[in-house]
Design a protein that fits this description.
This protein is of the alpha/beta class. Helices cover 38% and strands 17% of the residues. It is built from 7 helices and 7 strands, in the order αβαβαβααβαβββα. Helix 2 packs across helix 3. 44% of the residues are buried.
């Protein structure tokens, strides 16, 4: 069964979701891709494996069946494995959808969900550090604001959160998808959790993500809530931004 490959944290998160009156976004890493050698330097051309394709489709079906929500909107990194993950999740949701409307959803590609784009301002300055430190070391340096050519970590995270807020579903029983990459998710989770160091065990697995939602009338005045690995957390966006100063 394809869902045996799903990170166990994701099934546990279903039980922690808010009432269906509260719209939710699943901000997720793409599904299982081809393996790369080295320090986690995954090229743009790596594609989903057959297992990864089956997993994305099965997870999309499971979400609709077990949350009583409908996929309403989808954003994705422009990289093909992310777009494919989104499309397959929508197909899986479509297979058990009562009104069969999810296949009309456009997958909107967003540069803020890939690098350079999310956090990198000058790839020529930042790239040598990525090659030297590897993905984990690079993200640890980034969350400590110790790299040239990068946004301040809070600025970068707020940019992505505001994108999610602006594409967050507005209706009851609604679910939005945002498909991205491990480095971006790892950095965001660390920064919003107030951590300045992460270990390999903290790294998001393929097809692992966090459920997020917002409470408030505007982004700056909202409270962000999220579920990550069995825990529900929250922070004030306004207070979070003040930490940058």
């Amino acid at each position: 069964m394809a869902l045996e490959l799903l990170p166990k944290s994701m099934l546990k998160a279903i039980d922690l979701l808010p009432d269906t009156n509260v719209p939710v976004t699943l901000f997720t890493r793409h599904s299982i891709r081809e393996i790369v050698d080295g320090q986690g330097l995954a090229g743009y051309d790596l594609q989903l494996t057959s297992q990864g394709r089956d997993l994305a489709q099965s997870w999309g079906s499971y979400l609709i069946h077990h949350t009583d929500r409908m996929i309403q909107h989808c954003i994705s990194s422009p990289i093909q494995r992310c777009v494919d993950t989104a499309a397959l999740m929508i197909q899986g949701a479509d297979a058990i959808s009562i009104d069969n409307n999810t296949h009309h959803i456009e997958i909107v590609e967003q540069g803020l969900l890939v690098e350079p784009g999310s956090f990198v301002l000058d790839i020529k300055q930042a790239a040598p550090y990525f090659r030297k430190q590897g993905a984990l070391g690079f993200i640890n340096s980034f969350v400590n604001n110790a790299l040239p050519g990068m946004k301040h970590p809070i600025t970068g995270v707020v940019d992505v959160l505001e994108l999610i807020y602006n594409t967050h579903p507005q209706h009851k029983n609604a679910l939005s998808l945002a498909v991205s990459h491990d480095t971006i998710l790892a950095a965001i989770i660390a920064v919003i959790s107030g951590r300045n160091h992460i270990q390999q065990a903290d790294w998001p697995e393929m097809m692992e993500g966090l459920f997020v939602w917002f409470e408030g009338e505007s982004f700056i005045e909202s409270s962000l809530k999220w579920i990550w690995r069995g825990e529900v957390s929250q922070l004030s966006i306004r207070e979070f931004q003040l930490l940058e100063k």
